[in-house]
Amino acid sequence: MTSFLSAFFSGTAQGAIYALVSLGLVLVWRGAGIVNFAQMGQAMFTTYIASQLIQNDYSYWSAFLIALISGAALGALVDLGLMRPLTSRKNSQLLTSQSMRTTIPVIASLGILGVLKALAGIFWAGEERGFPSPVAPNAIKIGETNLAITGFDLFVIGTVFLTLVLTTIFFTKTGMGLAMRASALNPEVTRLSGIKVGWVRTLGWAISGIASSLAGLLVTPKTNLSPNTLDLLLIIGFTAAVVGGLSSLAGSVLGGFILGYVISFVNVYSAPENVFIAILVFLLLALFFRPQGILGSKQVRSV
Amino acid sequence: MSKVKTHKVIGLRSTRLSIVLFLFFILLSNQFEPYNQSQLANIAMLLIAVLSITLLTGASGQISLGQGAIMAVGGYSSALLVTRLGLSMWLSFILAIFISALFGLFLGLAAARLSGPYLAGTTLVMALAIPSIAVRFETFFSGDVGISVDYGMPPKWLTNLIGEVSIEEWSLYVVLPFTAVALFAVLNLSNTRTGRTWRAVRDNEVAASLAGINIARTKVIVFVCASGLAGLAGALYGFRGLVAPSVYPTDLSLTLLTAAVIGGLRSIGGAIFGTFVIVFLPDLIEKVTGKLAIPETIGIYLPALTIGVLLLLTVILNPRGAAGALEHIRHKKKH
């Protein structure tokens, strides 16, 4: 029973982080039709910035805030500097073919990932380092008995919950959020109603940058920080997004939590080596039986 | 749009090209010291894998970030066939092609339903998961330690014929015939009916299906061919000494894709160029950083940085790669 509870709680905390990653992926996918494989590279970079600031005696929370802001800036920069010119260019011969229009941005995002990893290695020597958390990772005690949940897990779940509430309010109550949803549904009509679709897209990239930066800050106290640590998170986040539905924000969050439980229970009841295989099997099952995802809308292709 | 070339004798030009490249490699290897000979052998192996991307992405528009994992399938197949069943190295290479092609068939059946980013993500997950299978089933695949295999010593008749042959040179001689055949096959394929079918699917799926092309079947066939090539490359790559998960990391898949993009996704000459770049560029950078006294901690990241920047510049400025740029210049001169 205790192992079940601890698997459940650590699954919830991990799932919360995966939900952030997958939310970030889906935000960009809905806005720009691009899966950003550099996303966790960007998060790795901003987490290094936070780590550097903490080493220079900044407080945890100011470093936290600066990391989120630089995450937004980096996301916007990737869109403005690379993706927007790339997708708006029509004269290139290669981009006239249908399949290449989706393939080229994927390759570009891999290029960014490579550059960011190399830069992190150059700036911060690339060796693994720890990353602090504001809450001690000890199990919470009531009286004498240890509960199956740690203070850090609670902190993660709380932070992500707050973020999700804020995101929901943003997308349902604010004009900017509604504009983003509109331009994801139908860019042409949105443009005609006077909304600058290009800038709305850039905003999507920025918010995605914040979400993934936050995921980086929340996951590194447990995994440590190195240029490659967050790669796995991208894979899991992608699987979560596909399971939940790449076109659905709520689905991406749901997918994140599902993946969190799957991975946590495989870890506890099976063996850690099985995690990768479990992810692959889960992804393939999802693609075979429900390619549009749990909450995704149908109509995936036009043929 | 790409011009449709008609060759009366379809195999002639490609035969010539393959033989020329074959001889070029051998002549080049005579000028080199052993280290560069082994680098040349690396190029010959990796070229086969890059060609698989030229087929997959360049000719048919599907993207795979998991070619390294398929190389691992080929590598493990041939290594297990040699060590467990005692087959000859040559036979194991040929069988590795078929085993990986079979694997590609299953992959293709899944991939035919996917497009663009879905396919990229799925193959990336595969690139991570497949090497971990070797760790999971340790008794069969030898886990992280891996299986030691090598090309063996050069045979007597060869040393009698051309004198002393270094081990590095021998590895090149083993690999080159396979590279030449692969090159020949890919060169021919792009000019056949099959190759045109693939290009049609790449450029416009709706139009292709209206023209009577079975899209799903075409995609599966492309995956089978590309996986066979990648598996062969992986088998040859493993026989440099070790078949282990660390030999086929995720980065390998990305490096191969980079080579194909830098050279030009749609050009076989580009694939050759790109493979040279990714193999020799790190050495070149190391030489330069040694002269400029750049500290080693920075120096080890410079190749990755340069290759990443090259990839980005290619995608932004010249998505058709080096081969596309060359064609552009030639085109301008004519007018």
TrEMBL record, chain A:
> What keywords are annotated for this sequence in UniProt?
Amino-acid transport, Cell membrane, Membrane, Transmembrane, Transmembrane helix, Transport
Assign the protein's first listed, main location to one coarse class: membrane
Q: Report whether Iron shows up as a keyword of the record.
A: no
Return one GO MF term.
transmembrane transporter activity
InterPro entries xref list: ABC_transp_permease, BCAA_transport_permease
Parts of the chain that traverse the membrane: 60-82, 103-126, 146-171, 199-220, 232-263, 275-295
Q: Give the location in the cell.
A: Cell membrane
Membrane-topology annotation of the record: Multi-pass membrane protein
What's a GO cellular component annotated to this UniProt protein? Answer: plasma membrane
GO biological process terms, semicolon-separated: amino acid transport
The entry's family comment says: Belongs to the binding-protein-dependent transport system permease family. LivHM subfamily.
- Name it: Unannotated protein
Q: Which organism is it from?
A: freshwater metagenome
From TrEMBL, chain B:
Sorted UniProt keywords:
Cell membrane, Membrane, Transmembrane, Transmembrane helix
Q: What is this protein called?
A: Unannotated protein
The residue ranges crossing the membrane are 41-58, 89-111, 118-137, 170-189, 220-239, 259-281, 293-317
Q: Where in the cell is it found?
A: Cell membrane
Q: Which InterPro entries does the annotation name?
A: ABC_transp_permease (IPR001851), LivM-like (IPR043428)
- One short Pfam name that applies is BPD_transp_2
Q: What is its main location?
A: membrane
Q: Could you tell me the membrane topology recorded for this protein?
A: Multi-pass membrane protein
* CDD domains given in the database record: TM_PBP1_LivM_like (cd06581)
Q: Which Gene Ontology MF annotations are present?
A: branched-chain amino acid transmembrane transporter activity
Q: Which GO terms describe its cellular component?
A: plasma membrane
